[in-house]
């Protein structure tokens, strides 16, 4: 009898499926909205390049990565939030680049909102992102940006660096830098 029970348990476990995760990468700007433009580099292309790298490097068959856009198209913030909420993702990472008048300002910023329905999980996501980046020049901040308030799932908005800073711009615009950023973010997704 013990053998039959053990055999049944073994067969049952062999056919048990692992829950598939759905992760949304929100690709900022697009189409008529280029975002920040510095020295001919624009935010919408950088965000799309890094998002495509994240999706392309994902080898985990139990993780589906969906981009809010995979071409140079413009979606309003409301359209992006609605699309994300319809997908019911496990979590969302919104990709951006930063800019300022102070060319010395550099580093990454991760934003979450207390108005997000899953603010605790969003905070945990922000911490995981914080620790994923190789450099320690990263800050977690609170803001009530539209997506952070209106997406009903855990979400963090990441400013990947300052296009206005020469060193950050080098990371944001080179193949090597974009790959490193994508690898850091992908490590959180797995």
Give a description of the structure:
The protein is α/β, with parallel strands linked by helices. The chain has 7 helices and 8 strands, in the order αβββαβαββαβαβαα. The strands form 2 sheets. Strands 4-1-5-8-6-7 form a 6-stranded mixed beta sheet, sandwiched between helices. A two-stranded antiparallel ribbon has the order 2-3. Strand 6, helix 4 and strand 7 form a beta-alpha-beta unit. The protein is globular and about 45 Å long.
Short description:
By secondary structure, this protein is of the alpha/beta class. The chain is 43% helix and 22% strand.
Task: Note the topology.
Layout lengths: L1 H13 L6 E7 L9 E2 L2 E2 H15 L5 E5 L9 H11 L3 E8 L9 E5 L6 H14 L5 E5 L3 H5 L4 E8 L3 H8 L1 H15 L1
Low-confidence stretches: 5-10
Average predicted local confidence, pLDDT: 93
Q: What is the succession of H and E elements?
A: HEEEHEHEEHEHEHH
The portion of residues forming beta strands comes to 15-25%
Strand order of the largest sheet: 4-1-5-8-6-7
In helices, the fraction of residues equals 40-55%
Q: Estimate the global geometry from the Cα principal axes.
A: globular
- Please report the total strand number as a whole number: 8
Note the main sheet.
Answer: 6 strands, mixed
């Amino acid at each position: 009898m013990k053998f039959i029970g053990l055999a049944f348990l073994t067969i049952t476990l062999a056919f048990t499926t692992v829950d598939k995760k759905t992760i949304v990468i929100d690709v900022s700007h697009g189409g008529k909205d280029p975002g920040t433009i510095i020295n001919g580099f624009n935010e919408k292309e950088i965000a799309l390049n890094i998002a495509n790298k994240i999706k392309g490097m994902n080898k985990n068959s139990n993780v589906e990565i969906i981009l809010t856009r995979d071409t140079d198209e413009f979606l309003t913030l409301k359209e992006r939030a609605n699309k994300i909420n319809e997908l019911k993702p496990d979590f969302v990472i919104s990709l951006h680049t930063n800019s300022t008048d102070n060319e010395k300002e550099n580093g990454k910023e991760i934003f979450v909102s207390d108005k997000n329905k899953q603010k605790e999980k969003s905070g945990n996501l922000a911490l995981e992102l914080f620790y994923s980046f190789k450099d320690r020049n990263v800050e977690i901040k609170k803001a009530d940006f539209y997506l952070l308030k209106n997406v009903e799932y855990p979400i963090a908005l990441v400013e990947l660096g300052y296009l206005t800073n020469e060193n950050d711009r080098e990371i944001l615009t080179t193949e090597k830098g974009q790959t490193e950023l994508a690898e850091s973010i992908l490590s959180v997704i797995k």
